[in-house]
Amino acid sequence: MEDLNRVAEYISLVNERAAIELVRRVFVAIEKLETFPRMGSYPLEFQDKTYRQIMESPVRIFYRQAGSAILVVHIFRMEENITPEKMN
Fold this sequence. Notes:
Blueprint: H1 2-12, H2 16-35, E1 52-56, E2 59-66, E3 69-77
Antiparallel strand pairs: 1-2, 2-3
Helix pairs in contact: 1-2
């Protein structure tokens, strides 16, 4: 959750309530993955189907399935250029 903290800290410099609300929305979105693990789309940046993403503006939440577990891999701001190297 280091990625989410970084984004929330940046937003809180201008609007602390917006940062708190973003964190809440991200956790709600991640909780939905427990019931609907395939609800995310495949990122266009990647040809393989290892990762999925869900959008919760202003972030993209990247995750993958490992058996029955959902692993949140990264949370990036939407405008960030995402490469396979950033996923490691």
